[in-house]
Design a protein that fits this description.
Elements (H helix, E strand, L loop, with lengths): L3 E6 L16 E2 L3 E5 L6 E5 L5 E2 L10 E10 L7 E8 L4 E11 L4 E8 L5 E10 L6 E8 L5 E7 L2 E8 L11 E5 L6 E10 L17 E7 L2 E3 L4 H4 L11 E3 L6 E6 L11 E7 L8 E7 L5 E2 L4 E2 L5 E7 L11 H6 L1 E6 L2
Antiparallel strand pairs: 1-15, 2-5, 3-4, 4-15, 5-14, 6-11, 6-15, 7-8, 7-14, 8-9, 9-10, 11-12, 12-13, 16-19, 17-18, 19-25, 20-24, 21-22, 21-23, 21-25
Length: 345
């Protein structure tokens, strides 16, 4: 798969009101209290009009974006509701909207693609594409913005239901900066296992991908000082994070903690590993940290500093390949690796 993964969220470990998405990446305070697909962990639940999530994407803008997620409507809504949108941040304008609307005829949701918002130009529609309320489905989308060679392709549970080619450009620019999950009414929508990637229009669609979120179960190498817990690993393994109730701290540049995890039972393909850590500074600063992965005996950091704020925020680093081999992760390597964080400033 010749794509680059830009964003991963399984929504298992925290709320999304501000500790994972910055004020520029969200509107309102969406919740993760809803149970996730497969009965595993949590899912993003949105049911307040005007709320949205739209992560900043490294390397943006792009002309082609891939995204995939699991989706479940909470009720059979006859309104034409945006399911997702692709944004041109330079002019704060929607390039493409994909919407869903329940049909009493099919007993399922129809999908529609618009250039711009749902009040813009209707490009195409797929009848009965999404199951009714209460049922999860997997949605995979590719969007290319162009006046003549634009394309929007949508797969539902591995089946292509939309493949539009033509004018998808709603602004003066052939760019996509962000993908947004919006809510326009008080109806409830569930999202899980969210992947956003860049690539070429000729690349294959993202397959059904499950995000496994694991929390520390033991120390590998602990150098930070623990507070409020018996061991470093148990100070950082709660979901959602408990802030200053239990934590690890250090003011010594170069110190790091790495932890062991219980290996999940995963599939044959590992698309990427993501390390997340929740941190803040409690002195005048500046302070910075990096995510760390340890495939066997050598620890590799993310290579770029995360500058800490005075409030907690969850920082992340995606490794699509094993830094020890420069090749794709094998399931055995992925489940045996250790993870953690390092103080760099």
């Amino acid at each position: 798969m010749a794509i680059t993964i830009l964003h991963v969220d399984g929504f298992e470990h925290n709320t999304v009101s501000g500790d994972r998405y910055s004020s520029a990446e969200r509107g309102g305070t969406p919740s993760t209290s809803s149970p996730g697909v497969y009965g595993y962990g949590r899912a993003l639940f949105m049911n307040v009009a005007g709320h949205w999530i739209s992560p900043l994407l490294s390397g943006a803008p792009y002309t082609t974006i891939f995204t995939s997620f699991h989706y479940k409507p909470d009720s059979n809504v006859f309104n034409n509701e945006p399911l997702m949108q692709f944004f041109d941040d330079s002019v704060s304008t929607v390039q493409v909207t994909i919407s869903a609307q329940f049909s009493a005829v099919s007993g399922k949701f129809n999908l529609s693609v618009y250039r711009g918002t749902t009040s813009g130009t209707l490009l195409t529609t797929a009848t009965g594409a999404i199951p009714p309320a209460g049922f999860w489905c997997h949605v995979s989308v590719m969007c290319t913005v162009n006046t003549t060679n634009g394309r929007v392709k949508v797969n539902i549970d591995g089946v292509t239901v939309i493949d539009f080619t033509g004018n998808t450009q709603n602004t003066a620019n052939t760019r996509i900066d962000r993908v947004r999950f919006p809510v326009t009414t008080s109806n409830g929508y569930n999202y899980d296992n969210w992947i956003i990637a860049s690539g070429l229009p000729t690349d294959p669609m993202l397959p059904e991908i499950r995000v496994y979120t694991q929390f520390p179960t033991g120390n590998d190498a602990a150098q930070f000082t623990v507070s409020g817990a018996a061991a470093n690993w148990s100070a950082v393994n709660e979901a959602p994070p408990n802030g200053d109730t239990s934590y690890n701290y250090s003011s010594t540049v170069g110190q790091q903690d790495t932890f062991t995890f219980s290996a999940p039972s995963i599939g044959a393909t590992v698309h990427a590993l993501q390390v997340c850590y929740d941190a803040r500074r409690d002195d005048a600063g500046p302070r910075a940290m990096r995510a760390v992965v340890k495939p066997t005996t050598t620890a590799y950091d993310s290579g770029a500093d995360d500058t800490l704020a005075s409030t907690y925020f969850i920082y992340k680093k995606i490794w699509m390949t094993n830094p020890e081999t420069s090749a794709a992760w094998t399931p055995g390597q992925a489940t045996a690796a250790k993870f953690g964080y390092k103080l760099t400033v």
